[in-house]
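Standup notes, structure subgroup. Blocker cleared on the S-adenosyl-L-homocysteine input:
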Amino acid sequence: MENPAYNIISNPGKPEGTKTGNNSGKKLFLESYGCQMNFSDSEIVASILSDAGFTATGNVHESDVALLNTCSIRDHAEQRVRHRLDEFQSVKKRKPHLVIGILGCMAERLKTKLLEEEKIVDIIAGPDSYRQLPLLLKQVESGRKAINTILSAEETYADITPVRINGNGVTAFISIMRGCDNMCSFCVVPFTRGRERSRNPETIVEEAKSLFDTGYREVTLLGQNVDSYLWHPLLGTKKEIIKEKANADAEDKADTVGFPDLLGLVATINPLLRVRFSTSYPKDISDEVINVMMKHENICRHIHLPVQSGSDDVLMRMNRGYTRDWYLDRVKKIRSVIPGCAISTDIITGFCGETEDDQIMTLSLMDEVRFDFAYMFKYSERPGTPAAKKYKDDVPDEIKTKRLQEVIALQQKLSLESNRRAVGKIHKVLVEGKSKRSDKHLFGRNTQNAVVVFPEGTCKPGDYVNVIADGCTAATLTGKVIG
Ligand code: SAH
Ligand code: F3S
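Run returned:
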């Protein structure tokens, strides 16, 4: 039923509908929070609104429309956006016609509630509604607030060429799929981003090719769980593909593109194009993916493989679908096929029911794997998730913090050891730009994704250089260009 206070505009079946109204001269301010996927989505939004006549500005004070592409993964992420909205109050006082919109996961999670709680917000647009933004903006022009939080089973924005915002011209993200079907019990993403769906591989390869042709030298293929990427030209959703695959003939099967196939396709565009991907899921990362990496030198030697916990009890309650031994076995396989492959991870401390023994298991797993890098978080209960419904958020905050600090301290040591192992070796580095600390230094990454800083010399962003590493911190390698 339509809420009379807002206009709910349904998603069209396919493209169109973007060239709406005359917005030329109007300025768009767009700020992104959260994961790489959100930053990638913002490039889609920028493309849609640039087609609708908007020009971008980095200054909210001179904008006509200010959009925040938001994250709901932890409460802290949502609080940051609330504070930003507080700051926008004064901007709106001076500029009453400024249109303020909330995009992304907070929009999807809170829907009309957000309009009620944050009076200055005019637009609420969920992750599958961006084609409708020009229409939603028109609606606001006519004096009504506008909301679209309809999730789609098909939308992949496959035909939209992202506008690269604040890019370095060397590295870019490409979304290969949307949504997530993996119901990890702590996670809000399946609710805010909807069902998993894969993007047509031809459009992915085209996008990567055109990036290469315009000077880009690295693409990161993005998905919540890239290993479950699956595409068939005639069949839509993954579920249909799996159902049909059982009775399909050989020709049909050959038409199905899985993640290892996609990786191979992108890697063969040009050996000078580096390929990365994120995120791999321990239950789903297959031997084929590992073998394809080995076949192509330009697929980077780095796998981000979130473990979350080293305890089987906790993993079970998290509904991750694998055990500690399974995870360790995947790591062993990766290291045996691709020697020197970096492995990074995500860890959550203080999940429901986590004991001191569980924490010890997490620390011992970290030690055993020797992660090169990790993102580490305190558990933050998200309303409506299976964990919020089923388990008590019973680890006191100070214990969550204490455990987080232990995990961070251990990772600091492991990261330093990882970088120390790289000192004295020669690294092929793709130059990305000036170092933050000094404009006489450049920085880039080696294939393992370690940041390498070195004196500028004659090289420029987009070049590959050989750097001999002569020093390091836990975060960075330093060195000199040779040859
Ligand atoms: N598959 C995704 C995961 C997205 S969330 C990907 O592409 O990376 C990123 C990380 O946030 C998760 O791996 C998890 O470690 C953390 N996270 C998710 N929900 C959380 C919660 N409720 N509290 C704390 N950390 C959380
Ligand atoms: Fe979240 Fe698990 Fe998917 S962490 S994004 S439900 S893989």
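Discussed briefly. DSSP finds 16 helices and 22 strands in the chain.
Next: hand off to the docking folks.
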